Prior knowledge:
Blueprint: H1 7-19, H2 28-41, H3 45-48, H4 52-55, E1 59-63, E2 66-70, E3 72-76, E4 79-90, E5 93-103, E6 108-119, E7 124-134, E8 139-149, E9 151-154, E10 157-160, E11 166-177, E12 180-189, E13 198-208, E14 212-222, E15 225-236, E16 245-246, E17 250-254, E18 258-270, E19 273-282, E20 286-295, E21 301-312, E22 318-330, E23 333-342, H5 345-351, H6 355-358, E24 362-373, E25 376-388, E26 396-409, E27 412-413, E28 420-434, E29 437-438, E30 443-453, E31 456-458, E32 461-474, E33 477-480, E34 488-491, E35 495-507, E36 511-514, E37 522-538, E38 558-573, E39 579-580, H7 601-604, E40 612-613, E41 617-630, H8 648-651, E42 668-674, E43 680-689, E44 694-706, E45 709-719, E46 734-744, E47 751-761, E48 766-777, E49 781-792, E50 795-807, E51 811-814
Antiparallel strand pairs: 1-2, 2-4, 3-4, 4-5, 5-6, 6-7, 7-8, 8-11, 9-10, 11-12, 12-13, 13-14, 14-15, 16-18, 17-18, 17-50, 18-19, 19-20, 20-21, 21-22, 22-23, 23-24, 24-25, 25-26, 26-28, 27-28, 28-29, 28-30, 30-32, 31-32, 32-35, 33-34, 35-37, 36-37, 37-38, 38-41, 39-40, 41-42, 42-43, 43-44, ...
Amino acid sequence: MLTSACLPALRRFRASAMNSRAQLLFTAPAVACILLLVSFLCIPHALAQAIPDISEAITTTRNDDVSIQALSQEKQGTTYKLRGNVEIHYGVFILHADEVTYDSDTKQSHAIGHLVLEGGPADEHIEATEGTYNFGTEVGRFEHVHGTVGMHLHSKRTVLTSSNPFVFSGKVVEQTGPGHYLVHNGMITTCELPHPKWQFNAGKIIVDAGSNATIYNSVFRIQGIPVLYLPFATHPIDRQTRQSGFLLPNIGHSSIKGTILGDSFYWAINHWMDATLGVDYYSQRGWAPLGEFRARPTEHSFVDLNVFSVLDRKSNSGADVTLNAEDDFSPDFRAVVKAEYLSSYAFRLTFYDLFAQAANSEVISRGFVSKNTDGFSFNAGLEQYRNFESSTDSTQVSILHAPSLDVTTADRQLGHTPFYWNFDAAADGLSRSEPTFSTAPLLGRFDLSPTLTLPTMLHGWSFVPSLSLRDTVYTQELLPSQTGSTVGTASSHAINRKALEGSVEVLPPAMERVFDKTWLDRKWKHVIEPRVTYHYLTGVNNFSNILRFDDRDILSDTNEVEYGLVNRLYSKRMSPAKENCKAQEFHPSFMATESQQSHIPWERAAEENSCATEPAVREVVTWELKQKYFLDPTFGGALVPGQRNVLTTTADLTGIAFLTSGRHLSPLVSLLRVQTTSNTDVDWELDYDFTSSKINASTALVNYHFGQFTVGGGEALMQVPAAILKPTVPQLPSFDQFRLLMGYGNAGKRGFSGAASVGYDVNVNSLQYSSLQAAYNWDCCGLNVEYRRFQLGSVPNENQYRFSFVLTNLGGFGNLKRQERLF
């Protein structure tokens, strides 16, 4: 019998001769050539293998939507016997093998040797020694299998086509339907084979491509060592598909809480709503129930509810509940809620793990609805502000806005005149309480302020004169204390505050110079922008009788001049921009990172696999200097000597309270920003007081990135005014704290990464907190460890030992959360 390798050639020759409309003329040489060609095409298969040029040819057969390629093909009826580099294309699937028997009628195939089946919507890839497969029903059985889902081999690289790719293997794998596999005596992992770092070994694994993998009676192993037995577990394949179930447990240790053990249950309520309910056990304190509810009803709305509580065996049982919600009903209509309930400040100091969280003495809850239309803004809201002056609840200051209604408008032209107008109107229900003072449960405040401006340009100079009136009515007034030991008393008498305000802002033309010579391959430009503003306000003759709730209540008479200038240094690159590009290396379980969205400095710079182009023009240095000269040093009698005075005019200049006595000259405020490249960031804010010849306050922040390294640091210094220091009351004359952060690597880096952070208080000579973190990432998992120590006032020193072992696309053990990592 002749091999079918000669049949296609004969058929093509016969079809060509029969379909030709022209008469063929055979000469003797032509006939000889044709006979010689036919004889070579019809050599038996065994002899054909001895001729290299013929044996290397791959024949192709097409039948409907099937394409078959092989070195050798035999056909008996509807059955194909294929040998050598067999490749069958059927729809979206491709079958490779050494030998295949294929029935074109039933679509059934049986493959032996180097079997590879790949394709499907989830990029399924099956490698086996032998198997049967039906292309029509997508049902089959494979032996000694290695498979992947969510990966595609392209140009010797593994390209991830799913957010949760994984690898599985088994002694026998049955495919019971499209994308549905039953694995017997196998394992599942996201690591590279043949030596995975971790794996689930199970007698039965059900894989639904595009959904998840269900694992029964599995043993979790790390480096082949059994660690945990799970009777039931699931592994997500598609990130969009969520499934309810228990999460991996967490474990840790704290010198205050003791050994920490816990677990949580994840509840996928529906496609836009889920919840996590769990509990931790602190061996030294008790149980800590916790939970989170999340909802995303629409693209522009969300709800996040978090609950953290502790049933403390000692004295600090309590809870902290936070709610964040937002909905953009339309492009100009928005509602926002950000609320928090804290049972006690001592609870926060005791049980929160982060220094910034525990040290925060404020609890703010607010919600508002805002409507913007045609330049008008209508707002309604509620707000409660609480601030704890010590660890006891009796020292808290509470301010309530319930409700607040205000209407504002942007500058609008007054008819066809050169004048512009705007106004601000508000109606508030208010209340305030503190240890030695309280107002009525709810008092009223009504405020109205229209403004008229006349912007003018003259020979490059800008003049903006403005005139405004303000009328504010309170349903209660403050009767100051005669002894000065308390705030005073809130009286039920109404009070009316009226003010007339005028100002003129003058902006001279900016002075600029472009330097001819280039330096560091850049052209340089220096710009100086001066400005002067005269401000006069009168009519507030009852400042001491005004209750204080927010910035509307600190308005006072003033007669002042503010002057300042801004220096800007620009650079323009002369040579073409260079892109910092590195080819992305894909691995079967490459650990994706969300570090670019983090607030940690070195996480923002961790873009080793991206292309970053420096801008052609950069504002390298921005340096602003400003100061005020007060023509009225008493501010219409509002100033009270010997204590901090916070007025609208001083708060507009600086956040530091410097006014303790009558003065003409304010501190000089310096704001410096330096950013030579995207990897360098320097901010320095300085208040220098010429009256006392000292620095009132200084805040400096520095971040520098070079390669995988990052160094960040900062200092916060504030001098307490000498006028308010009292010998009978112990008080530190200054506040001076340092922060230092150092890091190497990033969250997605293979191999070692590490970071350290410390905070030091110079005045008390104490290390407030320190944190040391280290991580090592493999191809499919990572180990993170941390030592943390901090001390907060009345809370004893706490030492924490935390860790997490993260499994790619699955989860992790331990209590070191991703958002709490330094890198």
